[in-house]
Design brief:
alpha+beta, single chain, 5 helices, eight-stranded mixed sheet, about 30% strand, Aminopeptidase
């Protein structure tokens, strides 16, 4: 068991959403998401193969076992459908400046879920869970400068620009959210 006490993603519920562990059964639902050009435009810039999606699902499950945090499926509570993914990671990114020990947040939603407040609801729940479990002094995220909706979302929840840099030759903005 990890130091946080979680070796599998806990279920976190909001009014409309359920954040839950990825399972092998989610693989088929994740393929269209990671093949959607709107989803991948700012996350890799290309469609992901089924093999890459399967590895992603496995990585998410393994992160909880290794680190006590990771990514959740964002599921609509009424329909039971996957609407996106959100979570906390330690990607050990090769970038300058490095994130160091700061936990990184990330999110992606299917285009049909855009404009419904799901990202705000899921991010609020993720931040509350993180505060209760880890209460890290600083959280970070990286966002493509052209991804205005994600920049606005991050800023809404107290993230401020840390630095403009590149990651794998692609321009990116590092944001941070420090505890008061």
């Amino acid at each position: 068991m990890t130091s946080s006490g979680f070796d599998r993603a806990p279920i976190v519920e909001t009014e409309r959403l359920r954040l839950r562990a990825h399972t092998a059964a989610d693989f088929e639902a994740c393929i269209p998401m990671w093949n959607d050009p709107i989803v991948t435009r700012f996350i890799g810039g290309r469609a992901y193969t089924a093999e890459e999606v399967w590895q992603r699902v496995q990585r998410y499950a393994g992160s909880w076992a290794l680190l006590g945090h990771g990514f959740w499926v964002i599921e609509d509570k009424i329909s039971g459908k996957l609407v996106g993914e959100i979570g906390i990671m330690d990607a050990k990114r090769d970038m300058d400046p490095p994130f160091g020990k700061d936990r990184e947040l990330g999110w992606a939603l299917l285009p049909d879920a855009h404009g419904k407040g799901y990202a705000s609801e899921a991010l609020q729940a993720t931040l509350e869970w993180e505060r209760c479990v880890f209460n890290a002094p600083c959280l970070v995220c990286m966002i493509d400068p052209d991804n205005v909706p994600s920049i606005k979302l991050a800023m809404k929840f107290g993230f401020t620009e840390r630095v403009r840099t590149t990651y794998k030759t692609v321009p990116t903005i590092q944001f941070e959210r420090r505890r008061a």
